[in-house]
Amino acid sequence: MTRRAKTVGLLVDWLEYEYQNKVLAASTRRCEHGGHLLCFTGGVLASPYRFGERRNFIYDLAGPESLDGS
């Protein structure tokens, strides 16, 4: 029986800072050993700014129907 590669989701609010880029790089390296990575870049949760709130729709795509884990 062949094992199916798992799909993992990474939810981040931004990809312009060193911390988020390090997390993305580490997640990518981990998935190189037999997995898939989907990165969802939305906004800050509970953002006081309207544009941040509007960006969060992308997180709705990160669910059990598209991911094995997040």
Give a written overview of the molecule.
- There is one protein chain.
- With 70 residues, the protein is of the alpha+beta class.
- It has 2 helices and 2 strands.
- The protein has helices at residues 18-31, 50-55, and strands at 6-12, 35-41.
- A two-stranded parallel sheet has the order 1-2.
- Helix 1 (18-31) links the parallel strand 1 (6-12) and strand 2.
- The relative contact order is 0.26.
Structural class: alpha+beta
Assembly context of the chains: single chain
What is the CA-atom radius of gyration, in angstroms?
14 Å
Strand content: 15-25%
The number of helical runs is 2
Name the overall outline. flat
Order of helices and strands: EHEH
In whole angstroms, how far apart are the ends?
25 Å
- Tally of extended strands? 2
Strand order of the largest sheet: 1-2
Most strands sheet: 2 strands, parallel
Helix content: 25-40%
Q: Can you give keywords for this protein?
A:
70 residues; alpha+beta; two-stranded parallel sheet; 2 strands
